[in-house]
Amino acid sequence: MSYDPIGRRKFLQTSALAGLGAAISPWSVRPAHAANLVVGFIYVGPKDDYGYNQAHAEGAAVIKKMSGVTVVEEENVPETVAVQQTMESMINLDSAPLIFPTSFGYFDPHMLAMCTKYPKIEFRHCGGLWTEGKHPKNAGSYFGYIGMCQYLNGIVAAHATKSKKIGFVAAKPIPQVLLNINSYTLGARSVDPSITCQVIFTGEWSLAVKEAEATNALVDQGIDVITCHVDGPKVVVETAARRGAFVCGYHANQSKLAPEKYLTGAEWNWSQVYTVFVTKALQKEPLANFVRGGLAEGFVKMSPYGPAVSAEGRKRADAVQAEMLKGGYSVIKGPLKTNTGKEVVPAGKGYVETAIELESMDYLVEGVIGSTS
Amino acid sequence: MATVAERPALLSAVTPAASRTEGVLRAYGAAEVLVIPLLAILVAALLFAAFIGALGKSPVQLYQLVYTGAFGTWFSWQNTLLRAAPLLLTALCVALPAQLGMVVIGGEGALVLGGLSAAAVAIPMQGFPPALVIAVMVLAGMAAGAAWIGGAGALRAYRGVNETISSLLLSYIAIAVMNHFVEGVLRDPASLNKPSTAHIGVVNMIGVLPGTRVHWGLLIGIAACLIAWFLVKRTTFGFAGRITGGNIRAARLQGLPVERLIVIFCALGGAMAGFAGMIEVAAVHGRANASLIAGYGYTGILVAFLARQHPLAVIPVSVLLGGIAAAGGLVQRRMGLPDATMLVFQGILFVLILLSETAYGRISFLQPPAERT
Q: For residue B28, is it within any domain?
């Protein structure tokens, strides 16, 4: 390292030459797809993660088959200036007029900055809370009430558990995750109030080692049905099944990973949402800014039951699902206490899935073993 | 340190020849240092082309896309430069301690803590003049990074702890510390599903270079590389460091404060990574949150090794890797190749550059005439 043959001049000359070479190159940029409507999808992880990103990529795959549509996709895009660059690149190099940045952290500040910079481009984001007057008109957000599916997961889990102890591997104690943990637990306890649910937070959205450790720790405690809320449930599903525990899936269908042990799962059905958006865009109609939906709207769905689900379990879960499809079903309803003994919902009060209060949940309900901090 | 300058014996022993021959030697040395890495890049590109061909895709199309996405237009250039900006600083976090023969790979932790500290000091300073707030943020970011990597250096110097391992482990601790604060006392209660600190205030953000979308981090990074080059190659302090790296016992015999040099060089490197974290907060995110953990610290290691730890070479290598990252998106979108494709290219490149280290002094046409055999 003590030898310095690159002099300052040499360095400057070389850089200048390299720059010149780049500037006069014959290759130029062509718009990729002139006639079609180009739709961009951006994922924070790999498209085949058996989880959050795969659920979106499956939705995008349905869009890809629509005539007059070209889909451009980018995976593993971090929530930094990189996603802004990806959006700009889709706009400038691919001429995409409609972009779906699918990760929560893309919204603020990245997507909002792009909305201001490109007012003619439409951006629709998964999970953000688009607010009239606060956010630009060409922005929007969509999400699904998947907590209802976790409630159904809980019902199925309750029929499968022998130890009366079920488990949950969670990423971070944020409202969306807490609602899932609580729904899963309440679903199970609606069948048998003696059931408890142990939760372990890994602290990261995608951290395979900790997910495996957490799953093993749950099984070691005698827990025999496990579900999760991490970006890619693959590790949790495979580890649990290998250890002999049943699993309920999340985000996408993971039955292939554990054909015997997979009970059912809470899945997104993004193709429904994307088809509506893209159809409207093709007809040059305005796109909605705030879109939410549950089982009834087809935004979320349950995986087909696995072989280990008892007839009784199926019957109960199907009956509750039928109730949910009628609308007005409350999972979070009084009297409801947290696991620290505080009453959060008084008797007689209930929150339907659309209730805005659920989007700021900060507690774990009675029956959950674990803490939010 | 003045004693070092008075003892030029070490240097003159290397170049005993007269000044004209010295010029020739220097020219050959420079040619070798430029040609060998370029050959390595060329061979890597050919190998990668074979890999792409084996996948049944066109290598020509791929390289056209890489060129278009990275350097083909002013738009692409800005994309490249934006991605290069943080790498300039995180690479220095590796390259500076490397002058003393150390391998520090914990820049990620220093960056994360730099960003957290910068946000933490800016939040209570709302209403102060922005220039003052930014200055304090810079100091806080650099101080946090310096303390972190300087700590790894001190462990090395005074306790013999391997700095590679300790800096890596310290960066896991740094990430945990950031999560603790961001999800705890520093959390903005409004940041529900993505725990973040409060915003540092729009007036306190550092903007973009006039007429571009590239933020000031790029120029700061380039300036830091130039200063680091001057410090390492043109001052007695840097010379003392390089002697320590060349032969630590000789350095001790010369009376150099070896321990202090180790700590200072590590702290300087850490300060650079901390500065990069501050820039991420002040130029991109406006808050500290998990988006800081974007792998810039780890890519910086790659940059520093590809640059053979030379502070000036860090600049073109950062631009090259920034370009590969920028082009990666286009390659995914146009060719349907997974994100890992460009990682394969980076990997091949890295291995070949390391391999090429053994080629110095062995390629006959690059040797001075007298030494040819």
A: no
Could you tell me which CATH number the domain at A37-144 has?
Answer: 3.40.50.2300
Q: Give residue B262's domain range.
A: 86-318
DSSP string, A322-334: HHHHHS--EEEES
Residue A145 has pLDDT above 80, yes or no: yes
Residue of B nearest to A107 (CA): B194
Tell me how far apart the alpha carbons of residues A250 and A151 are, in angstroms, rounded to a whole number: 12
Using CA atoms, how far apart are residues B174 and B182, in angstroms rounded to an integer? Answer: 12
Distance CA B330, CA B240 (A): 46
Please compute, for residue B123, the number of CA atoms within 13 A of its CA located in the half-sphere on the CB side. 19
Number of structural domains chain B divides into: 1
From chain B, the residues in CB contact with A22 under 8 A are 71, 77
pLDDT at A3: 45
Residue in A with minimal Cα distance to B338: A75
Considering only CB atoms, A92 lies closest to which of B30, B71, B75, namely: B75
Q: What is the ipTM of this complex?
A: 0.86
Q: Does B23 touch chain A (CB under 8 A)?
A: no
Q: Where are the domains of chain A?
A: 37-144, 147-263+307-369
**B69 near A CB under 8 A:** yes
**Alpha carbon B227 to chain centroid distance?**
14
Cβ–Cβ contact A7 with B under 8 A: yes
- Are B66 and B79 a contacting pair, CB within 8 Å? no
Q: Are B116 and B144 in contact (CB under 8 A)?
A: yes
Q: Do A2 and B195 touch (CB under 8 A)?
A: no
Q: Residues A6-37: pLDDT tens digits?
A: 555 555 555 555 554 444 444 444 444 457 99
Instruction: Tell me whether residues B333 and A176 touch, CB distance under 8 A.
Output: no
pLDDT of amino acid B193: 86
Query: Which of A14-28, A146-160, A243-257, A335-349 has the lowest average pLDDT?
Result: A14-28
Between CA B316 and CA B320 the distance in angstroms is 6
Give helix then strand counts, H and E, for chain A.
10, 18
Give the pLDDT confidence score for residue B206 in this predicted structure: 94
Contacts of B69 in chain A (CB under 8 A): 89, 93
Q: What is the pTM of this model?
A: 0.88
CATH number for the domain whose boundaries are A147-263+307-369: 3.40.50.2300
A370: left (phi over 0), alpha (psi -120 to 50) or beta: left
- Cβ–Cβ of B79/A89 closer than 8 Å? yes
- A344 in Cβ contact with A315 (< 8 Å): no
Paired tokens of B14: 């290397």
